[in-house]
Amino acid sequence: MRAKISYAVTAAVLVVYFVLVGSRGVLLIQAGTPLTVTFGVAVLILPVIGVWFLWKNTEFVRNANRLAAELDAQGGLPADELKRLPSGRVDRDSADEVFARRKAETEDAPDDWRSWFRLAVAYHDARDTARARKAMQRAIALRKTTP
């Protein structure tokens, strides 16, 4: 729940920022000189890119949460079997061991979105965020094509 609140607050702050930047772009365009119009258009592009990025990221999170809820309803969410250090951080060897099992599971069933979801969780636990995101995107894509 804390993550959802943090995400919502961050998104709201970004939207306010986009509105402020967009209004400055409009003011620059209204000044009417070739230089200010050029800068105004350039400034308006930034909020457009930002809104697109925020939308795609929000869509990704919503889809991943839907998969998690569906997998939980099926009883297929991966159990937290990771050993932790006294500090509470995940033990790297433990994460690598779980990752190896999840990778083998995914190689055995490459068209199963559930295995890709669990692999994404294993990547995340191993602190490989980029691959975790790609694995989750694969799980989402496979789920969309699975009846």
Characterization of the model:
The protein has five helices and no strands. The model has no long low-confidence stretch (mean pLDDT 91). It is 80% helix and 0% strand. The chain has 147 residues and is an all-alpha fold. Helix 1 (2-31) packs antiparallel against helix 2.
Number of helices: 5
Give me the Rg, rounded. 21 Å
Largest beta-sheet characterization: none
Structural class: mainly alpha
Spatial separation of the terminal alpha carbons: 30 Å
The arrangement of helices and strands along the chain is HHHHH
Helix content: over 70%
Estimate the strand proportion: under 5%
Provide keyphrases for this structure:
single chain, 147 residues, mainly alpha, elongated
Please describe the topology of this protein:
Elements (H helix, E strand, L loop, with lengths): L1 H30 L2 H40 L18 H17 L4 H13 L3 H17 L2
Helix pairs in contact: 1-2, 2-5, 3-4, 4-5
